[in-house]
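Quick illustration, no need to memorize.
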Amino acid sequence: MEPDRLSLVRSACARAMRPIVRLGLGMGLKLPHLEEMLKELLLDEGERLLRSQGVKPNISQLAVTTGLNRKQVTARVRALIDPLPATGLSAAARTFTSWLQLSADRPERARLPIASTGGGDSFQELARQASRSDVHHRAVLDELVRLGLCREADGFVELAADGFVPTADLKTTLAFLGDNLRDHASAAVTNALAGQALFLERAVFADGLEAADCEATHQLVRQRWNGLHHELVQSLTRAVDRNDGQGPQRIRIGIYLYAAPKDETP
């Protein structure tokens, strides 16, 4: 007997949520935390769904749509609070990305004088342009140093990473994890609900490999991504500048790779 649609969707959700549950358990979340979060998300998304259908949500409609009872819907006292920073708006991220672009074109620019001297590139000018003068360059530099993405010495600053992956700071790491997984999942979910591939979402899979094969592939993908990243940032920077940063749309483009033993639970 073929499984029904709800069984198929439940299985897909379980596959997608397993690493999220792993993250939560690994950092101390318990069932009550996850239940509270899921209730808030169900209500948020239930309201969004009803409004998209031209319906103004009320308690009864939300209860029917989400499966929560009326008491649980009524007990909601606030929207879900998100204490993580919005990664796409970070002056540090914009400055770091611009710096990577500069050093890709001119490798010697991976090391810059901090202050402007009236000629040539400097971190001060780079940060001013990238942040559109909204944030002082010293604050941006302090943040990049704190995140372990650059090193400062003797009036100069030097890149210490090839991507904005601030593993030295848990809050920022989790913010990027949440934003990247959310948008990847949003592309896949949008495609599934639409019944057609509206957004690019593809992967390549192989098994029967040695660890060395996986590592070689890992390095190949990193190299190709660095080139594509450079090209994408150039194109998107021109587009943002044409619109003076005021366009109504946002975009996130990512790539992932994961390798593990074949008998490990995915």
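DSSP finds nine helices and three strands in the chain.
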